[in-house]
Specification:
Thrombin, subunit H, 29 strands, six-stranded antiparallel barrel, six-stranded antiparallel beta barrel, about 5% helix
Amino acid sequence: MRRRSLLVAAGAVLALAATFLTTHNAQAIVGGTKSAKAYSFMGSFQPSYPRPPRADGHGCGVELLAPQWVLTASHCAGKNPTNAKNGIPQGWKVRIGSLDTTAGGKVAEVDHYYRLATSHDEGGFWGKDLALMHLRAPVHARPVPIASSTPADGTPTRILGWGMTCDEDKPKCYPNKLREADTAVQPASKCTVASPGELCIGSLDGTVGARNMDSGGPALIRQGDGWALAGVVSGPSSDGEPVLYTDVTKHADWINGIISGATVPADDVIPNVEGAVDLSGCSGSVVRTAVSRPNDPALLLTNGHCVRGDRPAPGAALVDQPADRAVSVANAQGYPLVSARADRLVYATMTGTDIALYRLNRTYAQLAAKGTKVFRLASTPVRAGDALTLAYTSSRLGCTAEAVVPHLKEGGYQFENSIRYATSPQCQPFHGMSGSALLAADGSTVVGVHNTHNDGGQACSDNNPCEVGADGSTTSVPGRSYGQQVDGIAACLGADSRLNLALPGCALTK
């Protein structure tokens, strides 16, 4: 079956556990026109995290169902840092009842969200891509009712949205004026990857339909003397086909149960991810040593293979290199607490260990004033049997050091005294977790940094690290994961967060 994707804002999905890529050539409400008059219930979802890549802040569409309730797609509300199903967001707002995403209508803050399904649900996600969002203050506008039943094939349908008008990340592709098109419900067979509970809507050749950043927007049908909501944009089918919408009528009981207060799901227990730093494909943490002073520039720890540009060559290190990298340190819920820039690559190597240190343009005192979590950097090594917490940006994994491996090889690099984790359901790192801190039991001391795992059991190739025995034999086991020791870093750092590879006891690669 062809892989499904979602109609979301490019670059705005980093909080999802899985990454969804759009396969369509993005066009906003293809075959449509600018709306001549506003719809009282139509709204634009504008989260501050993750910030959509457009000046107006629009990320998805929403529909007002009641004075304090709007409906959107689950994957739009899935842009919370920990991919929680139900919870309290930060910095989310909607603009309701305006043709323009930048002015008019009513602006309201979202203070709660409830998702019908997530990508992790065993019961499946497709056909359940819905989320209700509660507004802190009521919006006094006419809501849209839910259609009384699933519309039949051929039913005339109107679609609305502020989606992209071209597939470039440029202002010209981001319309702030609402667009609409009249089309029809098609047989499910006309959408190649339709699932139960989905509507296939748009022209058969794909020339009329929703596109990127139309997610959460409505499919409206005539009911009585007005509009009724039949579907919500979820994702495309295949190229040149109609678009798939979640059938809202199938989930009216779930919607009404929450709005009425009769069946409100409990909030998820959110893991404390305080101090994690998202580095777009890698993670990091802000660390200090015993000699760090409040006015020293703060240091960011990650993997050597997470540096931008060319990786450090085998047997070598990068020292005191220019850098310009955005850094956002998370609060306990994973939302950005403080922003900074990494303005210098202090050190990076993939020989002996896999580490990189960046200098930030903020001091430890400045970070402390914002309540930022700063971790202590250990000066003693991890031993077999030690309990570890892998501190990823959206979760915490409970791991145990099963063994310290004298020699580990991967793709031309060799690491010494690597930390092999015991395989368990609680410790299953995946791609993107590179650079995550390994914390001691106190939760405040970084004793290692996660760097690799074996994908397929191949011997010593990229993404397939192998253990090297004293006799030169290699062992490569699928699923094994490894981290690197960091106890040797502190001996190479002095005052002002300066690196000095000539200091006594500094054994890092020169």
